[in-house]
C-alpha cells in the first residue's frame, strides 16, 4: 500500500515533527508513506469571502497537482463523515483488498479545502466536529493510520 499525505503549510513545531517522525517510522513496516508539504498562501488576518475562496483555490491547485490519478482520495474536512478507528481500519483494509494500492489523505490549510479538491475527493473524513490546527492534524492522522494497520493485523495497541 502506498499512502500519500498532502498537507498545506510548513510544520515548525519540533514536538509535532518528532511525533510524526516516530509514527512514520512505525508505519514503514506496513506501508510506503510519502508526506508532501505544500506552501500555504500568505493572507492578512481579515479576509473577505472572495479572498478566502481565492486563497483556497490557489492552495487547491497545488494540492491537485500532487494527487496520483489512481489514488483513492480522502479529504480531511470538519463536515466529513465521522469514523471510529475500527471503521478507518476497515476502509483501509477494503481499499487494499479490492486493488486500490494508493490512498491519498489531504489536510488543507487554515482556511480549509477548495471546492475543486473536495470534488476530487472520493470521501471526506472528519476526526471531530471540533476544529484542530492543521499542523496537529498531521500527527493525529499518522497515529490513526498506524492504529488502523495494527487493528487490521490483529496486533495489540493501547485503547
From TrEMBL:
Signal peptide: none
The keyword Cytoplasm appears for this protein: yes
A GO CC term assigned to this protein in UniProt: cytoplasm
Location of the protein in the cell: Cytoplasm
Catalytic activity field: pseudouridine(1915) in 23S rRNA + S-adenosyl-L-methionine = N(3)-methylpseudouridine(1915) in 23S rRNA + S-adenosyl-L-homocysteine + H(+)
Keywords carried by this UniProt record: Cytoplasm, Methyltransferase, rRNA processing, S-adenosyl-L-methionine, Transferase
CDD domains hit by this protein: RlmH-like
UniProt-listed InterPro entries: Alpha/beta_knot_MTases, RlmH-like, tRNA_m1G_MTases_N
Molecular function per GO: rRNA (pseudouridine-N3-)-methyltransferase activity
EC number: 2.1.1.177
Top-level division of the source organism's lineage: Bacteria
UniProt entry tagged with the keyword S-adenosyl-L-methionine: yes
Annotated binding of S-adenosyl-L-methionine, by residue: 76, 108, 127-132
NCBIfam families: PRK00103.1-3 (NF000985), tRNA_RlmH_YbeA (TIGR00246)
Family: Belongs to the RNA methyltransferase RlmH family.
Complex formation: Homodimer.
Annotated PANTHER family: METHYLTRANSFERASE, RIBOSOMAL RNA LARGE SUBUNIT METHYLTRANSFERASE H
Function noted in UniProt: Specifically methylates the pseudouridine at position 1915 (m3Psi1915) in 23S rRNA.
Record's protein name: Ribosomal RNA large subunit methyltransferase H
